[in-house]
Amino acid sequence: MAGTYRIAVIPGDGIGTEVMPEGLRVLDAATRRFGISLEYEHIDWASCDYYEKHGQMMPDDWKAQLSRCDAILFGAVGWPEKVPDHISLWGSLLKFRREFDQYINLRPARLFEGVPSPLAGRKAGDIDFWIVRENTEGEYSSVGGVMFAGTDKEFVVQESIFTRRGSERVLKFAFDLAQQRAKKKLTVATKSNGIAISMPWWDERATEIATAYPDVKWDKQHIDILCARFVLNPDRFDVVVATNLFGDILSDLGPACTGTIGLAPSANLNPDRTFPSLFEPVHGSAPDIAGKQIANPIAMIWSAAMMLDFLGHHGGKEREAHDAILAAIESTLKEGPRTGDLGGSAKTDEVGKAIAERVANV
Ligand code: ATP
Ligand code: MG
Questions:
Q1: DSSP letters for 49-97
Q2: What's the predicted TM-score (pTM) here?
């Protein structure tokens, strides 16, 4: 196993700066207990404060600085009152995604005891699946334009570009993940009944890749019925893989079915490990609750646990540390303390401390 992992710590804006210390608090407890060595590089850029001082979100050598790290732990970016979202987002997070070839966006949807689901009658254990979203191409390729603008012939076209390499690598990742899970089930999101060129081709890629995974039970589902089933039968799913746009929609819908956004973690992965991967809560900087110490830190803490698991290649003491953090999150959701979004009145750091203590003691 590796010696010391070097972690870039980027709190960003708003509640990002409030939940990050709790992520680090729990990481410290876990790494101490399991004998893992982390070295933090604390970074104040990729924030709107930095933009106000420097007129750009990041220093020119950002890529060299981050490339020295094994992973990036990210809080949240954005403060629309000061900096428009397209500048803050395109000037930081979306650059990482592209330049570090983080081609997988991975999000769990899991319902915990003590967290009410908006889906009536669902209890802990009923919902437990992963969403794998293609993160670099497809519907978000930004190729196209407005033609004959201002005339009565005006039209707009935007292409979706699916490369063989881009499609195969995300499908392989999803089949691999399904194979490691107990149920070994994979659902491939498609729309080959309506999008008649690219989606049948995507289905073919899936069918080809599937031959290397005879033990994975897989099927294709059209995105419209798939959305309905997320709500009606979430217990059916194990791993779901989708192109960029469909994955974007599913990866918000899935966690929404499991309660608060304050719990949902995510990973932007470069599975080939040619550049660092990034781990961050799904939620944004939440200006409406920032500065009050009431944000739920669990999405941040869970993201940190996903980071350890990825660093350890899903095994070893890193996996044990990940599992201990998840167990501590589970018992804290059951027994408290809880933040306001879960009906409690605890402060951000009270929840962080409770989880860190459980990690140290279970
Ligand atoms: P994005 O930055 O992703 O575009 P956004 O800025 O529109 O999203 P968020 O910052 O994610 O939205 O916040 C959406 C809502 O969820 C807000 O009302 C916010 O208060 C609430 N929220 C977000 N994160 C948390 C959290 N960790 N704990 C409690 N409430 C949260
Ligand atoms: Mg925001």
A1: HHHHHHSSSS-TTHHHHHHTSSEEEEEE--BTTTB-HHHHHHTTHHHHH
A2: 0.95
